[in-house]
Write a structure and sequence with these properties.
The chain is an alpha/beta fold. 40% of the residues lie in helices and 13% in strands. Helix 5 links the parallel strand 6 and strand 7. The longest helix is centred in the N-terminal third of the chain and has 20 residues. The protein is globular, with a radius of gyration of 23 Å. The two termini are 41 Å apart. The N terminus is likely disordered.
Length: 431
């Protein structure tokens, strides 16, 4: 009996595994894809069981949407069908697409899902080189508009756009330029920065958490600087083991990573109780530092993968900087540090606040049916959207939440408030 039970259990496990990885073809979905002129190719891929089928789709979009004769380049999307009677959630990515799985909002609404990769990330780019002048929020929003328009004629229920972090920004930007593409938008943890060094971040970091925790963070950072001679060899060994390269040199990467620690600590919701005392030994200091603030943020290959983000941050969508005042005695810098150093020497940038000020005015005066989700302790919340009282937008801030804040992160009573808004706006019953 035991052997039989084991055999049945193994068989069941294998069946579940096959189910989870089975590629479900859908003739109706494929007919839709064949009917869309901008679709270049598609293939069925491993499907989330939440959907009937999922396809990786390659589309052709113009490099310059303002020029009818503009060259085309490939743009990738994931198209997941569940039911024609359900809403469509469109994930407007701000980076490369990391998953084709159903996201939180899609599951809550029992929806179909269309995920659109951001231009110039991964292989969604011109083949030979990047024409940086076409990497801006208007062109990216026009990409999303073109893809949504192609699919919208086939799905007649409510459309909801969403995205997380930079993808949340892209969700807001698209909605500003194409307000009728979707009925509702739910940007998660999306900052609205007004410069390449938005100084509201410094003000936020001076007040978040408790005074005791903030002091402990500063003392820890100073301990890393004071013990640099001992700790730097540990970073060098780790870099050698992982084959990391640092364009700015490992010595400078060390300093930048010390400065990044504070922002990263609050961004990802680390615990103050886990910060070592400033007089701890070098090994303990290093291990905690590595846990909270991955050094790959400054690593050459990692930076190159998200180079379009840094370009946009330094030209249009803004960023934070590092306040060097508390650490002047340890640094050669005479002014605060911003992220221009991430860009190739051949790329010249100048920040123009016009685009973000326009977005600010829109969310204040016209951004209707926008549900903003934020974490209360997330460093990016320092530059969060402030909806105007002329709109019916809703901003929900999860107490103590980090950049990982999702609807499920909220206390039950606040989750109920979010569900009530979604039910009212999308017209679905949420269980």
């Amino acid at each position: 009996m035991k052997l039989k039970g084991i055999f049945i259990s193994v068989l069941a496990t294998l069946s579940i595994g096959l189910l989870l990885s089975f590629r479900f073809q859908n003739p109706v979905a494929e007919e839709i894809l064949k009917s869309i002129p901008i679709v270049d190719s598609f293939k069925v891929i491993d499907s989330d069981p939440f959907f009937q089928s999922t396809y990786e789709v390659w589309l052709r979009v113009p490099l310059d949407h303002n020029n009818p004769n503009s060259p085309k380049f490939p743009l990738r999307a994931y198209y997941s069908h569940r039911s024609f009677t359900r809403p469509m959630v469109v994930v407007i990515d701000g980076y490369t697409m990391y998953t084709s799985k159903a996201n939180e909002l899609t599951k809550i609404l029992g929806a179909n899902q269309l995920t659109i990769e951001h231009r110039f990330f991964s292989n969604s780019r011109p083949k030979d080189s990047l024409p940086w002048q076409y990497l801006n929020i208007r062109q990216a929003a026009a990409d999303a508009h073109m893809v949504i328009s192609a699919f919208k004629k086939h799905y007649h229920n409510k459309w909801v756009s969403t995205g997380i972090s930079k993808s949340g920004q892209a969700t807001i930007f698209h909605r500003r330029f194409y307000p009728n593409d979707v009925d509702v938008s739910v940007p998660y943890v999306a900052p609205l920065n007004f410069s390449s060094e938005d100084k509201r971040v410094y003000d936020f970091l001076s007040k978040v958490g408790t005074p005791e925790c903030r002091k402990k963070i500063k003392d820890f950072q100073k301990a890393l600087f004071k013990n640099k001679n001992e700790i730097l060899p540990m970073l060098e060994n780790l870099a050698k083991k992982n084959r990391w390269e640092f364009k700015m040199g490992i010595d400078r990467a060390y300093d930048l990573s010390v400065l990044e620690y504070e922002f990263s600590f609050w961004q990802w919701g680390s615990s103050c109780t886990e910060i070592p005392n400033a007089n701890s030994d070098a090994k303990e200091l290093f291990e905690h530092w590595a846990d909270v603030n991955p050094f790959t943020f400054f690593e050459k290959k990692s930076t190159e993968k998200v180079l379009p983000f840094f370009y946009q941050a330094m030209t249009e969508i803004g960023m934070y900087g590092y306040n060097i005042e508390p650490f002047r005695e340890y640094l050669p810098d005479k002014k605060n540090i911003t992220f221009e150093f991430t860009l190739p020497d051949s790329v010249n940038v100048k920040f123009d606040s016009t685009a973000m000020l326009d977005i600010y005015q829109w969310v204040r005066d016209s951004g209707n049916y926008m549900l903003y989700i934020y974490g209360g302790n997330d460093a990016w919340t320092s530059t969060s959207v402030v909806p105007g009282n002329k709109t019916n937008a809703v901003k929900m801030v999860c107490p103590g939440g980090s950049h990982s804040t999702r609807i499920k992160s909220f206390p039950p009573e606040l989750q109920d408030s979010i569900y009530h808004v979604l039910e009212k706006w999308v017209g679905v019953e949420i269980n």
